[in-house]
Specification:
single chain, TIM Barrel, 8-stranded parallel beta barrel, 11 helices, 16% strand, binds pyridoxine-5'-phosphate
Length: 250
């Protein structure tokens, strides 16, 4: 089984913008957070421009594109509006996520198998523009196989259910979910997909995911921004990095 070098950490700065928008102020600035994340060891920055602009705004994406030294992973729903924005900015990576207005966060993975024809056509111009296209999906075999068929470069496996089960004390179900994620990562890798993972990861839950040899990138946001209240953003990122490296080395 191939081990592809160091595990990358993508820091999602959406919730810096959530705090800013709560008061309609100019601060805290997500671009400042992104620069601090870069200086603290983030390998990339992730930002989700939601259809309702509840956190990241269009101008944040413009400023991130101009300010970042590390790659931007632009998260978006598969809409015509977002495709046009992505094609205008041509970020390093585009991660397609499902989006529902009423959800608090991205609650499930994308139904690639159920929307294969449309999604295949949707990602083609993004691939041609040089963006590394990632699909945010669950660990189900049919979703992973569909992602490979439509030519995605990457799948990001949704770790939200695993993290929820951990905090609910459902140890047996959590371990079964982890096993399913492990199998999904191995299947995706065997089909030539690059494997990422993320959602809900914390200091307590990151290690078993970081230890999966096929996973080459984790995208982590909400917990790091929350922990920044107590530790500061730089130290929170450094601690996450340390735990990831420890898990990887074991
Ligand atoms: N990966 C994807 C595709 C996401 O949509 C999100 C949440 O925006 C994350 C990772 C990060 O999740 P969290 O903020 O819970 O760490």
């Amino acid at each position: 089984m191939a081990m592809q070098g160091k595990l990358r950490l993508g820091v999602n700065i959406d919730h810096v913008a959530t705090v800013r928008n709560a008061r309609g102020s100019a601060y805290p600035d997500p671009v400042r957070a992104a620069k601090l994340a870069e200086a603290s060891g983030a390998d990339g920055i992730t930002a989700h421009l939601r259809e309702d602009r509840r956190h990241i705004a269009d101008v944040d994406i413009e400023r991130l594109m101009a300010a970042l030294e590390r790659p931007l992973n632009f998260e978006m729903a598969a809409t015509a509006e977002m495709q046009a924005i992505a094609l205008r900015h041509k970020p390093h990576a585009v991660c397609i996520v499902p989006e529902k207005r009423e959800e608090r966060t991205t609650e499930g993975g994308l139904d690639v198998a159920g929307d294969e024809g449309r999604l295949g056509e949707y990602i083609a111009p993004l691939r041609e523009a040089g963006c590394r296209v990632s699909l945010f999906i669950g660990h189900e075999r049919r979703q992973i196989e569909a992602a490979a068929r439509i030519g995605a470069a990457v799948v990001e496996l949704h770790t939200g259910a695993y993290c929820d089960l951990h905090y609910e004390g459902e140890t047996a179900k959590r371990d079964a979910e982890l096993e399913a994620l492990r199998e999904g990562a191995a299947l995706a890798h065997s089909l030539g997909l690059e494997v990422h993972a993320g959602h809900g990861l914390t200091f307590e839950t990151v290690k078993p995911v970081a230890a999966m040899p096929e996973v080459v990138e984790l995208n982590i946001g909400h917990f790091l921004i929350a922990e920044a209240i107590f530790l500061g953003l730089g130290p929170a990122i450094k601690e996450m990095r340390r735990l990831m490296d420890e898990a990887r080395a074991a």
